[in-house]
């Protein structure tokens, strides 16, 4: 009987749901991880939904993406990885230090089904399920100009707090608060395998998606003719993600510009070029100009954008020169004589008249 009861107990344990805490997934291109929280501070997976961390969201990770937006320009996308809370409203607030001062960006929700701007952000995305229990992601988007930030500026001291009814629940880096408002117990030594805090992050712009390179020297364009072909190199810089890359040109005054993709320089040249590249893929792009206005000069701006939010540019100067003269195609205005001197071409009538004049002169001399 005791053996039977022991077996039943083991079976019950085996069939009981076990909460296995685990950290957020490694961020994929084009995101960089800034923060990752302790993997068990809100009671394990789904713990926040039962009221742990005072009912706030369970903070899992914070990542950042720099992205080009045609309307907004250079934007920062802060991605929050969260586990659903219980007590609402919930506000998740990010703070960090920058050369432009301490920045505070916040979003709020009444159900974890949708978030609204709670100050600082320009836009809040829809949530996206991670298909992992109650876990989901939501993006807070802000223009670099809104924050007063420029390329090369260094951000640091990242911190995120989640509050339910204005009561601090979970936070990262660090731990959390219990229902009594006291600090959650520290994880056992060696059990916290997910905590991470990036000391600083320097704004790098949107050129880390793909590269555009080539000879930047001036292109000589003959009037009413085509320039030599300039070869450019396009590369997908992502290690694990394919991208669609679009290339266009601005600043073509007095010339028309066209692109052709591939190793061959033959084929039709288009005003823009689209090419799909696998991770770490590379291809050649050919640029050709047609001169339409003699003496026109300027600088082309070749822009590369990607479907993931990247943007790079390359500048190439050009000048339209006079049309080349082909001596073989022009009518001759002189001819060389036997002794190497030149004389103007004469018509047959002029030659006959000259012969006549010489004959009369000879006749007059004989009579004299």
Could you characterize what this model shows?
The chain has helices at 2-15, 144-147, 348-367; strands at 32-36, 58-69, 73-83, 90-97, 103-109, 116-117, 123-124, 128-129, 135-143, 154-164, 167-172, 196-197, 200-202, 210-214, 219-222, 230-236, 243-250, 255-261, 273-277, 282-291, 297-306, 311-321, 334-336, 342-344. By secondary structure, it is mainly beta. The strands form five sheets. Strands 1, 2, 3, 7, 8, 9 and 12 form a seven-stranded antiparallel β-sheet that branches. Strands 4, 5, 6, 10, 11 and 13 form a six-stranded antiparallel β-sheet that branches. It is elongated and about 85 Å long. The chain starts with a helix and ends with a helix.
Task: Note the main attributes of this structure.
368 residues, mainly beta, Immunoglobulin-like, 2 domains, 6-stranded antiparallel β-sheet, 3 helices, disordered C terminus
